[in-house]
Design brief:
This protein has five helices and seven strands, in the order ααββααβββββα. It is α+β, with helices and mostly antiparallel strands. Helix 3 packs antiparallel against helix 4. The protein starts with 5 loop residues before the first helix and ends with a helix.
Length: 190
């Protein structure tokens, strides 16, 4: 009957289980990383530990099968391989982390930005504004509590669903908008 030495069995289990879990971690790092949120230098701890375990198994098997070294010396070889595995995993995962794109901006990030009214905004209804963000100009629907004519400068004060809440930029703009609104209403009475 064929017997597997206990040390070889341990090394095989470490290599297979550690390597398999490391592969799963690479595929679903966002989920696993969220569960184990501890990291070292921006790299999640989980891939580092699994790299050590899998490479410990590989190094131990290398020592017992290729070098014909056993017991404590095989464990030392496994540890050396495991430490090398940590170094490789750290290098790869930190490079992947640096390559990730930044979080895209949301409409909430636009609060406080200045905007330009493209389509006039009736009080309590929606119009359209242009806002500069992320180095580009974006168009958003916008609402306000007062009438704001097209080509006015406004400031984003909040978010309403997918649109923005704006107010005239500066106190003089608010009074100018109110005067324009009253003048327009007066013209319609004539």
């Amino acid at each position: 009957m064929f017997e597997i030495p206990v040390e070889d069995f341990i090394f095989v289990v470490c290599a297979l289980v550690g390597g398999g879990l490391l592969l799963i971690t690479v595929l679903v790092d966002d989920i696993v990383g969220a569960i184990f949120s501890f990291d070292i230098g921006g790299v999640s701890l989980m891939p580092l530990v699994l790299s050590f375990v899998s490479m410990f198994g590989v190094g131990g098997l290398f020592a017992t099968q290729v070098l014909d070294i056993h017991e404590g010396q095989a464990a030392l070889w496994g540890t050396a391989f495991g430490l090398a595995g940590i170094g490789i995993a750290y290098t790869v995962f930190s490079a992947l982390r640096r390559a990730e794109a930044e979080r895209p901006f949301s409409t909430a990030d636009l609060v406080g930005h200045d905007a330009y009214v493209q389509i006039s905004i009736p009080a309590g209804a929606y119009g359209s504004v242009m806002v500069r963000a992320e180095g580009q100009i974006h168009e958003f629907s916008a609402t306000a509590s007062v009438d704001i004519p097209a080509a006015s400068a406004v400031r984003v004060t909040g978010v309403a669903g997918p649109g923005l809440i704006v107010e005239p930029a500066g106190p003089s703009a608010a009074s100018q908008t109110a005067t324009t609104t009253r003048a327009t209403e007066g013209d319609s009475d004539v």
